Structures are given as structure tokens and as C-alpha cells.
## 1
Amino acid sequence: MIVESLRKVVFFIAVFLYFICIQITTYCYIIISKLGDSMQSLPSNAYVLLSVVNTKLRDFYSSLDALCDDLGEDKEEIINILSTINYHYDEDLNQFKN
């Protein structure tokens, strides 16, 4: 009888710990995803920005609008920064060109 009671207690403790681990994992995932979002912002250096934006346009986005919408960036700000180094967005090529 005592052994059966101990088994039940151990089982409930194991289930409780399992759910605690799931909660901790979920909270860690949320925190990491929030940190990832904050680290997704584009660089401020025009030449680095050019490289990053053109790579993202080539590999992931069909347009500058799609990139800006997805990353929450200001399209005009990107255009203005890159125009300071004489690069302009070419919609047909989907990249910034000199």
C-alpha cells in the first residue's frame, strides 16, 4: 500500500516537473525571440546597410516594400541613407545600384 502511494506521489511530482519545464522552455523561447527581433534592425553605416539590404532583397524579399514591412523599417529612410552614397533602388532588378 505504501509503495503504491509512493508511486503515485512520484508520478505526480514527475508530471508537475514536466509542466514546469514546458513553461520555462516557453518563456525562454519568448525572450529569445524578442531579443532576436531587437537584433534584426538594419545597420546605420551606409555601406554595410547597402550590403545587408541587397543581400536580403536577393535572398528573401521580392521588393523593398516587402522587406520594410517584414522588418518594420522605414523605406524612405533606407532610400535616403543609400542615396548619400549614390545608390538608388531599381525596382526591376530589386536591388540598390550605383
## 2
Amino acid sequence: MTRDDINKSSLETVEIDVPDGVAMNAMAHPGSVAYGQIHPYAVREKEAARYIGLTGSTLRKWRMNGGGPRFCRLGGSVVYRMRDLRVFVDSMLEKAK
């Protein structure tokens, strides 16, 4: 499918083959920043901290004390799945009083 095949007057989903473990955002107009942008399945500590608005040192402390979002070790690196970061943030929601 080419950009010319996409209806430019509306958003639509486009199926694209991508490598395993990589999510693809294809819900945008052609030519926009998000069109065809590859999103990582997992990120390292620095990116994870930035994504949820914390510091890397906070994530490290939580890991050592058994708290915070789920993580895994790949080789010598600690990584966080994007899904686990979203689940963690959602679990921290509080109701207004």
C-alpha cells in the first residue's frame, strides 16, 4: 500500500509487516510525524523514567525495594515493557474526594 492508496481526508488503519516485538503506529495522516513511526516494545530505564515522569534513580530504588513497574533484564540491561509502564501508572490512579 502506498500513501496514494490512503484516503487523505480521514484517518484509517493500515496493516504493515514489521519485525517481531515492534509496534507500528499507522493511525495518522500520511506525511505527519506519527505516520509509520516505529514504537519500541520495551525501553531502558532512562526512557521508562521519562515516559512516566520520574527519575531513573526512583526506578532503581523501587527495583531494589520490590516496588514500581515490572521490569526484566536483557543481557546486562534493565528494560521495561511499555505495556507494564502503562499498567503501573493506571494502578496508581486515585479517586477524587
## 3
Amino acid sequence: MSEINYQALREVAEAAKGDTTWQNLQAFHAAATPEVVLALLDGNERLCRDLIARNGEIEGASGVGRRTGGTGGGFASSVMHC
């Protein structure tokens, strides 16, 4: 699959959202193929895993995020829901 043209995808999505004519919806459906959606989801998943890994490295090196008592949470638990 070739690279995703994010700008073109954004433009057809915004056009379809703002003015739901048959032509705009057809343009969106032509651009948002299953392959494109899967590639976007894969990219999002990859970025999320990278963010979690980097956050773990930062917390491990600095001790940030280590708490005694309380409910914990913080940044690490918020990115777990990526």
C-alpha cells in the first residue's frame, strides 16, 4: 500500500462532515478504504506502544510516578488506554 495522504483524507472528511452531499460522501468513501483505516489504526497502536515504553523508561530512570499509598494513576495509567 502506498503512503496515506493525510491532508487529502482530512479534506474529504471535513467536506463530508460539513456538507453531506452524495458527492462529498462518495469522495470520503473512496479515500477512507479499509486498507487506509487499518493502516491508521496500526499507526496509532504503534505510537501508543512507543509512548508507553518511553514513559516507562522515563519513570524508571527518574522515579517519577512511583507513589506509596493512594490510588496511583498518573500519566502511565492514562496512556494504557490508548
